[in-house]
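Catalogue entry: protein
Contents: sequence, fold tokens
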Amino acid sequence: MAARTGAVVDARFCAPHATEFTLTKTKSWFRDFTITDASGAAVMKVDAPPFTFVRRSILVDAASRRPLVTTERSPTLFTLGRRWEAFKGDGSRPRDLLFSAVVQPWLFVIREVHVHLAGGDRSEKNPDFVIRLSSCGREWTVSRGRSDGGAAVATIKRTTGLFLFEGLAFSVSVSPGVDHAFILALAVILHEIRQDGIQRGQHAAF
């Protein structure tokens, strides 16, 4: 993975070297996570309010507790084309939008998610990034969109947790120059997609 994306959340999250992170679910019945780096130090936390009409998750800086990214599912009456949006800080207004992630289901299996950056192609025919599930069903690869070469920039792998309420952990590998806060927000969204799919009887295989 040698591609560079530039900043999506903030340039300070674009390390000049490859980075590794682990997301660990803090309580099996809740959606909160702790995010640690390769040394085991906590760098972010994911706070997910349990009683909200719209499912939201907030990535916060572990030291300052400052909100970095808020992800939420866009309300819809349709199962196909389910959509999640990510906003800067704890915002939720259109001007705070960073990117959208749209599920691309095939029958009852989720194999691909398209990511569209704010201010990009409004028709959303050409995704800026494509997330694909591996044949083993435990690893997602984040790649540039087809119009931008399709090079892989990160991988997100489920390392534990086979069932909905079992403790979960994910390992995340990010290429040099790639905004790791952006990739970690995608990991949170993939977990939400997995939960939502299980509840709907749609196999996410992740």
About this structure: The CA atoms of residues 77 and 83 lie 11 Å apart. The first helix runs from residue 180 to 199. The chain has one helix and twelve strands.
